[in-house]
Write a structure and sequence with these properties.
Length: about 375
Amino acid sequence: MSGIYIHIPFCKQACYYCDFHFSTSLKKKDELIRALVKELKLRSTELDGQTIETIYFGGGTPSLLTNDELQLLIDSVYKNYSVIDNPEITLEANPDDLSNDLIVQLSRSPINRLSIGIQSFFEDDLKSMNRAHNSEEAKACLQLATQYFDNITIDLIYGIPNMSLKKWNENLEIAFGYGVNHISSYALTVESKTALDTFIKKGDYPPIDETLALEHFNHLIDKTKAQGFVHYEISNFGKPHYFSKHNTSYWQGKPYIGVGPSAHSFNENQRSWNVSNNSKYIQSIQSNKLPNTIEMLSKEDKYNEYVMTGLRTVWGVSINKIKSEFGDRFLKQLKATSEKFIKDGMLVVSSDLDENRNRLEILKTTQKGKFLVDGIASELFILN
């Protein structure tokens, strides 16, 4: 089983914290959509006949596309690939785009999952991030969307400077009140060359407070658990049967194709990424050339990626798999480098049974280690 990611590189305006590839000009939208259709065709043999189980529209802001444009891209997937019955098809959307008419249209389309970029239900937070929507639009779109879609995830940002724990809790309580079954929540981070980075360096915005972010993160874990959510990946909380199938495939190392400028692809042995420039992307596709860079993955690369993604998830890192797929050298490395984190209570080895009742040893992060998981994982890496 495989997935297809389609990058829509357009936004109404630039959020101060965002470093994803996008353009605020829609002049090349029609050309780019035609290029996406063509790239899907050009790459139709890459997955060696594997069946597509997920389609994900990310960005950028995919909800800027019309329903007809989205349908054209979905039809192109079905025309060029084998797709399972009832695949998970996700659309990232901003609240200001989700009008009554669009929600109704989407509910009648093959799209069956909405990922709505709420970020905060408070006006001052949205303004400080330069979001295109306001607080009332955030609430209104959820009020309507939940009447037509059962599978909805929302994004929320924590660790915003000067955000009190009370205010963060109110954000969560409002989200729970709409009955959403999945929440993706991320700490506000400062990416280089973003507006937020510039503002902080100039003293126009408070610096990020890691202590505050940790307090918010721990509160998030406790509150979602009490509401029946499973913390199945560091930034993702879903009720049973509502985990993101598409993103889970990333974390479990399944192959996928990413189409569109800046989109990444993976086929177990290599990773590739398209050029992050709309004009260059369109020109290349029009010339029947894939505008991508390819990186062959070494055994060390594969080990490092498995450790990184495994520790971020509820499934952890299988010590049995390390031995069987990577060998004794890698197993010795894992045991040696993880020892200090186990002693510090940040990692733990637990036992489980596989489908054949064979005992498995699983290395996982503890509650104490979750917030620092990326740094911990990097300490376990093997360098090429």
